[in-house]
Design brief:
Blueprint: H1 3-8, E1 17-19, H2 23-33, E2 36-41, E3 44-49, E4 52-57, H3 62-66, E5 69-73, H4 77-87, H5 89-93, E6 101-103, E7 107-113, E8 119-125
Parallel strand pairs: 1-4, 5-8
Antiparallel strand pairs: 2-3, 3-4, 6-7, 7-8
Length: about 130
């Protein structure tokens, strides 16, 4: 592939569209989790944390939410777990968080569900 073509085909970012059953509630959940909402329009809100981002969409299909998973790779899964637990979001939003577990795929991680049932796997490489 030519250098000019490689430059033309450069990827600058990839984001997932995360579904939301209650758009306003989910926006507040992600803000309380520590994400920053940068914009909103047309039923889509752009959230980021550092260099990681996603688009929250005002769309809900139960089977889609029940099978949707996001993976957030962090430097310290235990610190993130403490952050989630200490934030009070599990009680405020009636969501579940697991304990930190060492996985056979060489990660420490835990899972957190959002108010729509989307599962977030938050982990670090070991």
């Amino acid at each position: 592939m030519s250098t000019a073509l490689q430059k033309d085909l450069q990827v600058t970012e990839i984001k997932a569209f995360v579904p939301a059953k209650d758009f306003a509630l989910s926006k507040q959940f992600y803000a309380d989790l520590g994400f920053t909402q940068a914009s909103e329009g047309g039923g889509v809100a752009y959230f980021y944390y550092g260099n990681s981002s996603f688009l929250l969409q005002e769309f809900y299909e139960p089977r889609h939410c029940e099978n949707f998973m996001m993976h957030l790779l962090v430097n310290d899964a235990a610190a993130w777990h403490r952050h989630v637990v200490n934030s009070g979001i599990t009680a405020k939003y009636d969501v579940q968080v697991s304990e930190v577990t060492e996985q056979p795929w060489k990660m420490l991680d835990f899972v957190l569900t959002d108010p729509s049932g989307v599962l977030w796997r938050i982990g670090q490489n070991i």
